[in-house]
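[Discussion] Sanity-checking designs against the backbone

I'm trying to build intuition for which residues belong where. Below is a C-alpha coordinate string of 373 positions. I'd appreciate it if someone posts a full sequence so I can compare it with mine line by line.
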Protein backbone atom coordinates (compact mmCIF):
# COMPACT_ATOMS: atom_id res chain seq x y z
CA UNK A 1 0.00 0.00 0.00
CA UNK A 2 1.27 3.46 -0.87
CA UNK A 3 0.33 6.63 0.96
CA UNK A 4 -0.05 10.27 0.03
CA UNK A 5 3.28 12.05 0.70
CA UNK A 6 1.41 15.08 2.05
CA UNK A 7 -0.93 13.35 4.48
CA UNK A 8 0.61 9.93 5.07
CA UNK A 9 -2.83 8.44 4.36
CA UNK A 10 -4.01 6.03 1.70
CA UNK A 11 -5.48 8.01 -1.18
CA UNK A 12 -8.96 6.95 -2.32
CA UNK A 13 -10.67 8.36 -5.38
CA UNK A 14 -14.45 8.25 -4.92
CA UNK A 15 -16.00 8.15 -8.39
CA UNK A 16 -19.71 8.86 -8.79
CA UNK A 17 -22.40 10.27 -11.07
CA UNK A 18 -22.04 8.74 -14.50
CA UNK A 19 -23.86 8.57 -17.81
CA UNK A 20 -26.64 6.18 -16.80
CA UNK A 21 -30.18 6.88 -15.66
CA UNK A 22 -28.98 6.14 -12.12
CA UNK A 23 -26.87 9.30 -11.99
CA UNK A 24 -28.79 10.78 -9.04
CA UNK A 25 -28.68 7.54 -7.06
CA UNK A 26 -24.92 7.42 -7.51
CA UNK A 27 -24.60 10.99 -6.22
CA UNK A 28 -26.68 10.08 -3.17
CA UNK A 29 -24.42 7.11 -2.51
CA UNK A 30 -21.37 9.36 -2.71
CA UNK A 31 -22.94 11.74 -0.19
CA UNK A 32 -23.25 8.91 2.31
CA UNK A 33 -19.71 7.68 1.77
CA UNK A 34 -18.16 11.15 1.97
CA UNK A 35 -19.82 11.63 5.36
CA UNK A 36 -18.83 8.26 6.76
CA UNK A 37 -15.37 7.36 5.38
CA UNK A 38 -12.61 7.20 7.99
CA UNK A 39 -10.70 10.44 7.48
CA UNK A 40 -7.98 9.32 9.90
CA UNK A 41 -6.99 6.57 7.46
CA UNK A 42 -7.95 7.86 4.03
CA UNK A 43 -7.38 10.97 1.97
CA UNK A 44 -10.40 11.45 -0.30
CA UNK A 45 -10.40 12.63 -3.91
CA UNK A 46 -14.02 13.13 -5.09
CA UNK A 47 -14.39 12.69 -8.86
CA UNK A 48 -17.76 13.15 -10.51
CA UNK A 49 -18.69 11.96 -13.97
CA UNK A 50 -21.22 14.25 -15.64
CA UNK A 51 -24.11 12.90 -17.70
CA UNK A 52 -22.21 13.82 -20.87
CA UNK A 53 -19.20 11.78 -19.74
CA UNK A 54 -16.89 14.55 -18.51
CA UNK A 55 -14.73 13.64 -15.49
CA UNK A 56 -14.72 16.52 -13.01
CA UNK A 57 -12.99 17.35 -9.73
CA UNK A 58 -15.75 17.86 -7.16
CA UNK A 59 -15.92 19.54 -3.78
CA UNK A 60 -15.48 17.30 -0.76
CA UNK A 61 -18.98 18.17 0.45
CA UNK A 62 -21.83 15.65 0.74
CA UNK A 63 -24.70 18.14 1.03
CA UNK A 64 -25.13 19.02 -2.69
CA UNK A 65 -25.12 15.30 -3.52
CA UNK A 66 -28.00 14.26 -1.27
CA UNK A 67 -31.13 12.95 -3.03
CA UNK A 68 -34.41 14.15 -1.56
CA UNK A 69 -37.90 14.95 -2.79
CA UNK A 70 -36.79 18.57 -3.21
CA UNK A 71 -33.21 18.03 -4.42
CA UNK A 72 -32.03 16.08 -7.46
CA UNK A 73 -28.23 16.07 -7.37
CA UNK A 74 -26.22 16.50 -10.54
CA UNK A 75 -22.50 16.38 -11.37
CA UNK A 76 -21.40 19.57 -13.12
CA UNK A 77 -18.47 21.93 -13.19
CA UNK A 78 -15.52 23.09 -15.27
CA UNK A 79 -12.50 21.56 -13.49
CA UNK A 80 -11.72 18.49 -15.58
CA UNK A 81 -9.88 15.43 -14.28
CA UNK A 82 -7.75 13.14 -16.42
CA UNK A 83 -7.17 9.64 -15.03
CA UNK A 84 -4.15 8.01 -16.68
CA UNK A 85 -4.59 4.91 -18.81
CA UNK A 86 -0.83 4.29 -18.77
CA UNK A 87 0.51 2.28 -15.80
CA UNK A 88 3.81 4.14 -16.12
CA UNK A 89 2.17 7.52 -15.53
CA UNK A 90 0.02 7.24 -12.42
CA UNK A 91 -0.59 10.92 -11.62
CA UNK A 92 -4.11 12.31 -11.93
CA UNK A 93 -4.18 15.59 -13.87
CA UNK A 94 -6.48 18.57 -13.37
CA UNK A 95 -7.37 20.82 -16.29
CA UNK A 96 -8.83 24.22 -15.39
CA UNK A 97 -9.93 26.83 -17.93
CA UNK A 98 -7.07 29.17 -18.79
CA UNK A 99 -4.58 27.32 -16.58
CA UNK A 100 -1.78 24.88 -17.37
CA UNK A 101 -2.40 21.24 -16.36
CA UNK A 102 -1.47 20.43 -12.78
CA UNK A 103 -0.79 17.12 -11.11
CA UNK A 104 -2.82 15.83 -8.18
CA UNK A 105 -0.57 12.84 -7.61
CA UNK A 106 -1.32 9.14 -7.76
CA UNK A 107 -4.39 7.32 -6.47
CA UNK A 108 -4.02 4.15 -4.39
CA UNK A 109 -7.56 2.78 -4.73
CA UNK A 110 -10.67 3.79 -6.64
CA UNK A 111 -14.02 3.37 -4.89
CA UNK A 112 -16.55 3.30 -7.75
CA UNK A 113 -20.03 4.34 -6.64
CA UNK A 114 -21.48 4.26 -10.14
CA UNK A 115 -24.68 2.37 -10.85
CA UNK A 116 -25.85 1.09 -14.22
CA UNK A 117 -24.19 1.24 -17.65
CA UNK A 118 -20.83 2.99 -18.09
CA UNK A 119 -19.77 2.25 -14.55
CA UNK A 120 -21.20 -0.91 -13.04
CA UNK A 121 -21.00 -2.92 -16.25
CA UNK A 122 -17.25 -3.52 -16.58
CA UNK A 123 -16.45 -0.39 -18.60
CA UNK A 124 -14.91 1.58 -15.73
CA UNK A 125 -13.31 -1.60 -14.41
CA UNK A 126 -11.60 -2.10 -17.79
CA UNK A 127 -10.24 1.44 -17.74
CA UNK A 128 -8.80 0.93 -14.26
CA UNK A 129 -7.27 -2.40 -15.28
CA UNK A 130 -5.52 -0.66 -18.19
CA UNK A 131 -4.18 1.96 -15.79
CA UNK A 132 -3.13 -0.71 -13.24
CA UNK A 133 -5.15 1.05 -10.52
CA UNK A 134 -6.76 -1.09 -7.83
CA UNK A 135 -10.47 -0.67 -7.26
CA UNK A 136 -13.33 -1.82 -5.08
CA UNK A 137 -15.67 -4.47 -6.45
CA UNK A 138 -15.85 -7.08 -9.17
CA UNK A 139 -13.67 -7.22 -12.26
CA UNK A 140 -14.59 -6.71 -15.90
CA UNK A 141 -16.28 -10.02 -16.69
CA UNK A 142 -18.36 -10.42 -13.51
CA UNK A 143 -19.41 -6.77 -13.66
CA UNK A 144 -20.49 -7.05 -17.29
CA UNK A 145 -22.32 -10.36 -17.01
CA UNK A 146 -24.11 -9.54 -13.75
CA UNK A 147 -25.23 -6.19 -15.19
CA UNK A 148 -27.11 -8.07 -17.91
CA UNK A 149 -30.14 -9.72 -16.29
CA UNK A 150 -30.36 -12.19 -19.19
CA UNK A 151 -26.75 -13.40 -19.05
CA UNK A 152 -26.93 -13.41 -15.26
CA UNK A 153 -29.78 -15.91 -15.33
CA UNK A 154 -27.90 -18.09 -17.82
CA UNK A 155 -24.92 -18.27 -15.44
CA UNK A 156 -27.11 -19.01 -12.42
CA UNK A 157 -29.07 -21.73 -14.19
CA UNK A 158 -25.82 -23.36 -15.33
CA UNK A 159 -24.66 -23.37 -11.70
CA UNK A 160 -27.85 -25.14 -10.61
CA UNK A 161 -29.30 -22.10 -8.84
CA UNK A 162 -33.08 -21.56 -8.96
CA UNK A 163 -34.28 -18.82 -11.34
CA UNK A 164 -37.80 -17.91 -12.42
CA UNK A 165 -39.28 -18.07 -15.96
CA UNK A 166 -38.40 -15.20 -18.29
CA UNK A 167 -38.34 -14.04 -21.92
CA UNK A 168 -35.66 -11.85 -23.51
CA UNK A 169 -36.48 -9.39 -26.28
CA UNK A 170 -33.47 -8.03 -28.14
CA UNK A 171 -33.51 -4.84 -30.16
CA UNK A 172 -33.38 -6.77 -33.45
CA UNK A 173 -36.20 -9.10 -32.42
CA UNK A 174 -38.42 -6.17 -31.44
CA UNK A 175 -37.80 -4.26 -34.65
CA UNK A 176 -38.19 -7.37 -36.80
CA UNK A 177 -41.43 -8.79 -35.39
CA UNK A 178 -43.16 -7.15 -32.42
CA UNK A 179 -46.11 -9.54 -32.58
CA UNK A 180 -43.88 -12.59 -32.20
CA UNK A 181 -42.10 -11.04 -29.23
CA UNK A 182 -45.39 -10.16 -27.55
CA UNK A 183 -46.72 -13.69 -28.08
CA UNK A 184 -43.61 -15.15 -26.45
CA UNK A 185 -44.27 -13.09 -23.33
CA UNK A 186 -47.87 -14.30 -23.12
CA UNK A 187 -46.61 -17.80 -22.34
CA UNK A 188 -45.37 -16.53 -18.96
CA UNK A 189 -48.87 -15.79 -17.68
CA UNK A 190 -49.93 -12.60 -15.89
CA UNK A 191 -48.78 -10.41 -14.28
CA UNK A 192 -45.23 -9.97 -15.56
CA UNK A 193 -42.44 -7.52 -14.83
CA UNK A 194 -40.89 -5.72 -17.81
CA UNK A 195 -37.32 -4.56 -17.19
CA UNK A 196 -34.42 -3.03 -19.10
CA UNK A 197 -31.89 -5.85 -19.22
CA UNK A 198 -28.97 -3.66 -18.20
CA UNK A 199 -30.29 -1.03 -15.80
CA UNK A 200 -30.80 -0.92 -12.06
CA UNK A 201 -32.52 0.89 -9.19
CA UNK A 202 -35.81 -0.26 -10.80
CA UNK A 203 -35.42 2.37 -13.52
CA UNK A 204 -37.80 1.60 -16.39
CA UNK A 205 -39.38 -1.36 -14.58
CA UNK A 206 -43.14 -1.85 -14.93
CA UNK A 207 -45.59 -4.39 -13.57
CA UNK A 208 -47.93 -5.47 -16.39
CA UNK A 209 -51.29 -7.01 -15.54
CA UNK A 210 -52.56 -7.87 -19.03
CA UNK A 211 -51.58 -8.06 -22.70
CA UNK A 212 -52.93 -4.60 -23.58
CA UNK A 213 -50.31 -2.91 -21.38
CA UNK A 214 -47.38 -4.94 -22.61
CA UNK A 215 -46.24 -3.08 -25.73
CA UNK A 216 -46.14 0.34 -24.02
CA UNK A 217 -44.25 -1.15 -21.06
CA UNK A 218 -41.64 -2.66 -23.39
CA UNK A 219 -41.25 0.66 -25.21
CA UNK A 220 -40.77 2.40 -21.85
CA UNK A 221 -38.08 -0.12 -20.84
CA UNK A 222 -36.37 0.34 -24.22
CA UNK A 223 -35.82 4.01 -23.38
CA UNK A 224 -33.26 2.75 -20.85
CA UNK A 225 -31.95 -0.28 -22.79
CA UNK A 226 -32.80 -1.71 -26.23
CA UNK A 227 -32.54 -5.18 -24.70
CA UNK A 228 -35.52 -6.02 -22.49
CA UNK A 229 -36.21 -8.92 -20.14
CA UNK A 230 -39.73 -9.90 -19.12
CA UNK A 231 -40.06 -12.00 -15.98
CA UNK A 232 -42.98 -14.00 -14.70
CA UNK A 233 -44.18 -12.59 -11.39
CA UNK A 234 -42.98 -14.59 -8.41
CA UNK A 235 -45.25 -14.45 -5.38
CA UNK A 236 -43.08 -14.36 -2.31
CA UNK A 237 -41.25 -12.29 0.26
CA UNK A 238 -38.30 -10.21 -0.97
CA UNK A 239 -35.22 -11.10 1.05
CA UNK A 240 -31.63 -10.04 0.52
CA UNK A 241 -28.19 -11.16 1.60
CA UNK A 242 -24.95 -9.22 1.49
CA UNK A 243 -21.74 -10.99 0.52
CA UNK A 244 -18.17 -9.81 1.07
CA UNK A 245 -15.08 -11.32 -0.50
CA UNK A 246 -12.90 -13.30 1.87
CA UNK A 247 -9.40 -12.16 2.79
CA UNK A 248 -6.66 -14.16 1.11
CA UNK A 249 -7.88 -17.69 0.42
CA UNK A 250 -10.86 -17.41 2.79
CA UNK A 251 -14.33 -18.07 1.41
CA UNK A 252 -16.75 -15.15 0.91
CA UNK A 253 -18.79 -14.11 3.94
CA UNK A 254 -22.57 -13.80 4.04
CA UNK A 255 -24.42 -11.23 6.14
CA UNK A 256 -27.58 -11.49 8.15
CA UNK A 257 -30.69 -11.67 5.96
CA UNK A 258 -32.77 -8.55 5.32
CA UNK A 259 -36.34 -8.25 4.09
CA UNK A 260 -38.07 -5.54 2.05
CA UNK A 261 -41.77 -4.89 2.55
CA UNK A 262 -43.69 -2.28 0.55
CA UNK A 263 -46.32 -1.16 3.04
CA UNK A 264 -48.15 1.49 1.03
CA UNK A 265 -48.25 3.72 -2.02
CA UNK A 266 -46.49 1.37 -4.47
CA UNK A 267 -47.29 -1.90 -6.22
CA UNK A 268 -43.67 -3.04 -5.87
CA UNK A 269 -40.22 -1.85 -4.81
CA UNK A 270 -39.79 0.73 -7.57
CA UNK A 271 -37.44 3.72 -7.88
CA UNK A 272 -39.64 6.13 -5.91
CA UNK A 273 -40.12 3.59 -3.11
CA UNK A 274 -36.35 3.02 -2.91
CA UNK A 275 -35.14 6.61 -2.89
CA UNK A 276 -37.99 9.11 -2.55
CA UNK A 277 -41.00 7.70 -0.64
CA UNK A 278 -38.96 5.74 1.88
CA UNK A 279 -41.76 5.94 4.46
CA UNK A 280 -43.76 3.47 2.38
CA UNK A 281 -41.08 0.78 2.65
CA UNK A 282 -39.98 -1.28 5.63
CA UNK A 283 -36.46 -2.73 5.64
CA UNK A 284 -36.15 -5.40 8.31
CA UNK A 285 -32.98 -7.12 9.46
CA UNK A 286 -32.65 -9.79 10.51
CA UNK A 287 -35.62 -11.06 8.51
CA UNK A 288 -38.21 -13.05 10.38
CA UNK A 289 -37.47 -16.41 8.79
CA UNK A 290 -36.58 -19.80 10.22
CA UNK A 291 -32.88 -20.28 11.06
CA UNK A 292 -32.57 -23.14 8.58
CA UNK A 293 -33.97 -20.93 5.79
CA UNK A 294 -31.56 -18.13 6.69
CA UNK A 295 -28.68 -20.61 6.59
CA UNK A 296 -29.77 -21.83 3.16
CA UNK A 297 -30.03 -18.27 1.82
CA UNK A 298 -26.52 -17.51 3.07
CA UNK A 299 -25.08 -20.70 1.55
CA UNK A 300 -26.76 -20.15 -1.81
CA UNK A 301 -25.81 -16.47 -1.86
CA UNK A 302 -22.14 -17.36 -1.47
CA UNK A 303 -22.57 -19.98 -4.20
CA UNK A 304 -24.09 -17.36 -6.52
CA UNK A 305 -21.26 -14.92 -5.69
CA UNK A 306 -18.65 -17.53 -6.60
CA UNK A 307 -20.51 -18.77 -9.68
CA UNK A 308 -20.58 -15.22 -11.02
CA UNK A 309 -16.89 -14.67 -10.25
CA UNK A 310 -17.71 -11.66 -8.07
CA UNK A 311 -15.09 -9.85 -6.02
CA UNK A 312 -15.28 -7.32 -3.23
CA UNK A 313 -19.00 -7.09 -2.56
CA UNK A 314 -22.41 -8.03 -3.87
CA UNK A 315 -26.02 -8.04 -2.74
CA UNK A 316 -27.95 -11.18 -3.62
CA UNK A 317 -31.72 -10.77 -3.95
CA UNK A 318 -34.17 -13.63 -3.42
CA UNK A 319 -37.88 -14.39 -3.45
CA UNK A 320 -39.06 -16.68 -0.66
CA UNK A 321 -42.28 -18.33 -1.81
CA UNK A 322 -45.04 -19.32 0.64
CA UNK A 323 -44.33 -22.99 -0.06
CA UNK A 324 -40.74 -22.57 1.09
CA UNK A 325 -39.02 -22.41 -2.30
CA UNK A 326 -36.25 -19.86 -2.85
CA UNK A 327 -35.98 -18.15 -6.26
CA UNK A 328 -32.86 -16.15 -7.10
CA UNK A 329 -33.81 -12.75 -8.48
CA UNK A 330 -30.45 -11.09 -9.14
CA UNK A 331 -27.00 -10.09 -7.94
CA UNK A 332 -25.95 -6.45 -7.68
CA UNK A 333 -22.17 -6.08 -7.93
CA UNK A 334 -22.34 -2.42 -6.85
CA UNK A 335 -25.48 -2.39 -4.69
CA UNK A 336 -27.22 0.64 -3.28
CA UNK A 337 -24.81 2.02 -0.70
CA UNK A 338 -26.49 4.95 1.02
CA UNK A 339 -26.67 4.60 4.82
CA UNK A 340 -30.35 3.66 4.41
CA UNK A 341 -29.71 1.02 1.73
CA UNK A 342 -30.13 -2.66 2.47
CA UNK A 343 -26.49 -3.67 1.90
CA UNK A 344 -25.03 -1.44 4.65
CA UNK A 345 -27.94 -2.31 6.93
CA UNK A 346 -27.49 -6.08 6.73
CA UNK A 347 -23.78 -5.70 7.43
CA UNK A 348 -24.46 -3.37 10.36
CA UNK A 349 -26.63 -6.14 11.80
CA UNK A 350 -23.72 -8.51 11.16
CA UNK A 351 -21.31 -6.40 13.23
CA UNK A 352 -19.83 -4.15 10.53
CA UNK A 353 -21.08 -0.56 10.71
CA UNK A 354 -21.14 1.80 7.71
CA UNK A 355 -17.71 3.33 8.29
CA UNK A 356 -16.14 -0.06 9.02
CA UNK A 357 -17.78 -1.51 5.90
CA UNK A 358 -16.24 1.20 3.70
CA UNK A 359 -12.84 0.51 5.28
CA UNK A 360 -13.25 -3.24 4.74
CA UNK A 361 -14.00 -2.75 1.03
CA UNK A 362 -10.96 -0.52 0.54
CA UNK A 363 -8.76 -3.05 2.35
CA UNK A 364 -10.06 -5.88 0.15
CA UNK A 365 -9.32 -3.82 -2.97
CA UNK A 366 -5.82 -3.04 -1.71
CA UNK A 367 -5.09 -6.76 -1.25
CA UNK A 368 -6.30 -7.71 -4.74
CA UNK A 369 -3.98 -7.23 -7.70
CA UNK A 370 -5.11 -5.95 -11.07
CA UNK A 371 -4.85 -8.04 -14.25
CA UNK A 372 -5.72 -11.71 -14.66
CA UNK A 373 -6.42 -13.37 -11.30
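Best answer:
Here's mine. Compare freely.
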Amino acid sequence: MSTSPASGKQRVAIVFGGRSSEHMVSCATAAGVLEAIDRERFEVLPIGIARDGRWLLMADDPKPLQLTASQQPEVDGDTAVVVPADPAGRDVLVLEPGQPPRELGAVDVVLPLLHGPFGEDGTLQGLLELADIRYVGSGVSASAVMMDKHLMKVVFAAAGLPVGPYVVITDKEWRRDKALALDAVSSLGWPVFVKPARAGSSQGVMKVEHHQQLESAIEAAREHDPKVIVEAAVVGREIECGVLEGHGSDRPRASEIGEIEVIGGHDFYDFEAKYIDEGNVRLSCPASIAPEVAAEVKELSVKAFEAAGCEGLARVDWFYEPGGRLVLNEINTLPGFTPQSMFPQVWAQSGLDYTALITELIELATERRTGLR
